[in-house]
């Protein structure tokens, strides 16, 4: 069983590393897919493991996007002039400026959303169930509207992220570079969550989902765990946003950064499709969703949103527990749910 | 014997509903005390007041030498005063062992121990306690798939995992088949003797409470009606009237 797992992880790593060479035409698509996996994994921390359905996580994605590009520009050039005049034509990043800026920008694009999550979480994680969901629904929309009004980051017109520096290789190198960044982010997020779910953190999140009152009655400071859960999720989601902004090269408040109607909904759908509250569910869900979605856009152009809607209905009606959840219902013994027939005459001690 | 819990002149009103009025009771350390009364007499409200689910209007509650009436639930739980619920509350999607692990009291509990590893020896301890309540064989099943009676036993085991000083049990035998009830009485007595945990038990089943408790308090209409040994309570005319209606 363990050997089997190692084999699967190894295979995924090798495939992930080799993918840009195996499918060069789909490099960008696969990069987006890894980002979507991160989106689904981080949403699942609240929605799946903790049972707090958040529709506002897109907030952290957008903040990360603006922070990364803003820092990358602001470290070397005046940000206001850049956004006012299409600065990518006047100010040119040298390669070392570009990469230094990106490095600092990506770190801050994780840290700042994490701090925002802690502050907002302290205020609203006391709400439960649908009240929390509605409250978070407002977050993403409000953020989009506010960002549309800030001149420094280009207001409603949006801003360009620094273009790939000249003289070190063309778009081929650029897409490979971002591919591997996305892949590494996905792997790190997955490994971190896999580890975290095995610690007390994971157990407490599940306990909050199943019965928060009981968890409190047993002496667990649920608020602390809820906030840290949101912070973790905002951190990785912010970095994903920063990467996405740099990769697309253009940041617009409502359609790209705080895109509640697309990515904000997709992250929920992907986690539910795969099976929320499981480690692998969001990964499988995101990959399946991305492939289906691209298929709809290619083959049903004009009807793609109808097809997507039909998919949502099918998921909710037939697989409310998602792919992993349905498998678990069907083969519980494969997931370790067995009655141990061997009796045991253990000494009962309290210590 | 020392008094572990002292409830002194506690009042709790919900608007015009007088759920608890001038309730005073004491529980001695290491004893088993019963709390009875007709439906709606304020027993569960008193439990909620003691563990801090809601604030009380007047009076004081002293646990183990400390005033707890203004403390929130997790803090009271950490002092070693735990309760179980009338409707079982377990973590349905986790298996029994996980239910147990999460119930143990961590040695250190602060922001840096959020990602602490679960100690290995806890699993063995969980196994022992599950064995004690007779659920060892089902330890890998989801707690939500257990029967109601088994969930009650699991909840008892979870409370023991936390190593409390005192347990408040809200109808431990309600909804459990008569054969299993004897097992529960037997286990509660062992919990009290072997683990030296003080018990305060709400119970409607008179046979159970008369066999279990050394002292019984009876509530009616939010007021303390009578107190005494099981013998005294059994023969108290006011108690019989409260339960069956006065003639």
Structure description:
By secondary structure, chain A is mostly helical. Chain A has one domain. Helices cover 73% and strands 1% of the residues of chain A. Chain A has helices at 2-22, 27-50, 58-74, 79-85, 95-124, 129-147, 171-198, 200-217, 222-248, 253-257, 260-274, 280-299, 304-318, 322-330, and strands at 159-160, 250-251. Chain A has a two-stranded antiparallel sheet. In chain A, helix 11 (260-274) crosses helix 12 (280-299) and helix 11 (260-274) packs parallel to helix 14. The longest helix of chain A has 30 residues, at 95-124. The model of chain A is unreliable at 346-351 (pLDDT under 50). By secondary structure, chain B is an alpha/beta fold. Chain B has 2 domains: 3-80 and 164-244, Rossmann fold (3-Layer(aba) Sandwich); 93-109 and 116-161, no CATH class. In chain B, 36% of the residues lie in helices and 25% in strands. The interface between A and B is large, with 41 and 51 residues.
Concise summary:
The complex is a heterodimer of chains A (351) and B (247). Chain A is an all-alpha fold. Chain A is 73% helix and 1% strand.
């Amino acid at each position: 069983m363990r050997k089997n797992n190692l084999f699967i992880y190894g295979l995924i790593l090798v495939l992930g590393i080799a993918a840009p060479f195996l499918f060069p035409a789909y490099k960008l698509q696969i990069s987006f897919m890894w980002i979507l996996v991160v989106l689904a994994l981080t949403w699942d921390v609240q929605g799946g493991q903790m049972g707090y359905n958040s529709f506002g996580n897109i907030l952290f994605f957008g903040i990360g996007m603006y922070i990364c590009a803003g820092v990358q520009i602001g470290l070397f050039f005046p940000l206001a002039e850049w956004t006012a005049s299409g600065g990518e034509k006047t100010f040119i990043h040298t390669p070392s400026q570009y990469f230094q800026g990106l490095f600092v920008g990506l770190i801050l694009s994780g840290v700042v959303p994490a701090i925002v999550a802690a502050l907002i979480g302290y205020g609203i994680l006391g709400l439960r169930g649908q009240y929390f969901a509605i409250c978070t629904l407002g977050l993403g929309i409000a953020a989009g509207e506010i960002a549309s009004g800030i001149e420094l980051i280009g207001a409603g017109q949006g801003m360009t992220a620094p273009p790939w520096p000249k003289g070190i290789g063309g778009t081929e190198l650029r897409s490979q570079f971002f591919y591997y960044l996305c892949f590494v982010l996905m792997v790190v997020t997955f490994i971190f969550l896999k580890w975290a779910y095995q610690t007390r953190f994971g157990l407490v999140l599940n306990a909050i989902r199943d019965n928060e009152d009981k968890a409190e009655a047993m002496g667990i400071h649920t608020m602390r765990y809820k906030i840290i859960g949101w912070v973790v999720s905002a951190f990785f989601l912010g970095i994903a946003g920063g990467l996405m902004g740099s990769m697309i090269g253009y940041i617009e408040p409502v359609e790209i950064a705080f895109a509640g109607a697309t990515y904000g909904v997709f992250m929920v759908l992907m986690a539910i499709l795969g099976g929320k509250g499981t480690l692998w569910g969001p990964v499988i869900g995101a990959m399946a969703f991305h492939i289906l979605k691209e298929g709809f856009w290619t083959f049903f152009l004009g009807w793609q949103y109808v097809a997507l809607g039909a998919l949502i209905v099918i998921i909710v009606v037939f697989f409310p527990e998602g792919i992993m959840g349905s498998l678990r219902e069907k083969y519980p013994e494969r997931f370790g749910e067995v009655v141990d027939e061997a009796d045991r005459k253990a000494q009962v001690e309290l210590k | 014997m020392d008094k572990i819990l002292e409830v002194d002149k506690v009042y709790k009103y919900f608007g015009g509903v007088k759920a608890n009025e001038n309730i005073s009771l004491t529980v001695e350390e290491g004893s088993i005390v019963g709390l009875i009364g007709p439906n709606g007499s304020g027993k569960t409200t008193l439990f909620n007041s003691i563990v801090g689910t809601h604030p009380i209007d007047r009076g004081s509650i002293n646990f183990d030498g400390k005033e707890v009436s203004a403390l929130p639930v997790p803090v009271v739980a950490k002092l070693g005063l735990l309760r179980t619920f009338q409707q079982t509350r377990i973590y349905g999607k986790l298996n029994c062992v996980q239910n147990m692990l999460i119930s143990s009291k961590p040695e250190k509990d602060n922001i840096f121990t959020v990602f602490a590893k679960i100690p290995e020896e806890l699993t063995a301890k969980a196994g022992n306690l599950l064995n004690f309540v007779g659920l060892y064989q089902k330890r890998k099943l989801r707690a939500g798939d257990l029967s109601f009676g088994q969930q009650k036993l699991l909840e008892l085991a979870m409370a023991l995992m936390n190593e409390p000083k005192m347990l408040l049990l809200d109808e431990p035998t309600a909804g459990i088949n008569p054969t299993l009830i004897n097992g529960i009485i037997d286990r509660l007595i062992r919990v009290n003797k072997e683990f030296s945990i003080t018990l305060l038990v709400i119970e409607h089943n008179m046979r159970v409470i008369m066999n279990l408790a050394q002292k019984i308090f009876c509530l009616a209409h939010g007021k303390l009606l009578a107190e005494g040994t099981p013998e005294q309570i059994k023969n108290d005319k006011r108690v019989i009237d409260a339960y069956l209606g006065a003639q």
